[in-house]
């Protein structure tokens, strides 16, 4: 079954992209002391709950031209970059190490990426709070 490895690679990269989307959510909410579970993902400006198209990693940003579909407020270019980087870590890891242990190493890289992005966001949030 030579087609399994490419399929698994695509699947794991998609998982990493989705985890990248969660990293964005965590980086936005954790510094503010908010839950990462509730409420569901929404626009910070108008409160509209995000739908399936908005939540597509990288593609959702492109389809919405980087803006909220309702109030047109900018989303920020860091969102698709964080998602694409997570997917890139997984792809590179699988290409380098093979599907196993590449997928496991990729998940570890994505976890480190998530911690780094969230820590930087927390630091930035604390600095913004001090200067306000
Ligand atoms: Zn909005």
* Uncertain parts: none
Main sheet: strands, sense, barrel: none
Helix and strand composition category:
mainly alpha
| Bound molecule types | zinc ion
Rg for CA atoms: 16 Å
Number of helices: 5
Instruction: Give the oligomer, counting copies of the same chain as homo and different chains as hetero.
Output: single chain
* N/C terminus separation: 59 Å
Amount of helix: 55-70%
Number of strands: 0
Average pLDDT, all residues: 95
Shape, please?
globular
Task: Please explain how this structure is put together.
The chain has 132 residues and is mainly α. It has a domain at 4-41 and 77-125. The chain has 5 helices and no strands. It has helices spanning 4-29, 52-55, 59-63, 78-97, 99-131. Helix 1 (4-29) runs parallel beside helix 5 (99-131). It is globular, with a radius of gyration of 16 Å. It starts with a helix and ends with a helix. The mean pLDDT is 95. Bound molecules: zinc ion (ZN). Residues 43, 45-46, 48, 68, 70-71, 73 line the site of zinc ion. The site of zinc ion has 8 residues, from loops.
Could you provide a short overview of the structure?
By secondary structure, this protein is an all-alpha fold. Helix 1 (4-29) packs parallel to helix 5 and helix 4 runs antiparallel to helix 5. The chain is built from five helices and no strands.
């Amino acid at each position: 079954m030579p087609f399994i490895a490419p399929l698994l690679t695509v699947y794991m990269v998609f998982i990493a992209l989705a985890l990248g989307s969660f990293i964005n959510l965590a980086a936005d909410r954790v510094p503010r002391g908010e839950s990462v579970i509730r409420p569901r993902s929404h626009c910070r400006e108008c409160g509209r709950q995000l739908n399936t198209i908005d939540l597509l990693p990288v593609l959702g940003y492109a389809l919405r031209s980087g803006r909220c579909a309702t109030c047109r407020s900018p989303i920020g270019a860091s969102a698709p970059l964080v998602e694409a980087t997570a997917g890139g870590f997984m792809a590179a890891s699988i290409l380098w190490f093979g599907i196993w242990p590449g997928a496991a190493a990729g998940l570890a890289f994505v976890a480190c990426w998530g911690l780094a992005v969230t820590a930087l966001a927390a630091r930035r949030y604390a600095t913004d709070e001090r200067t306000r």
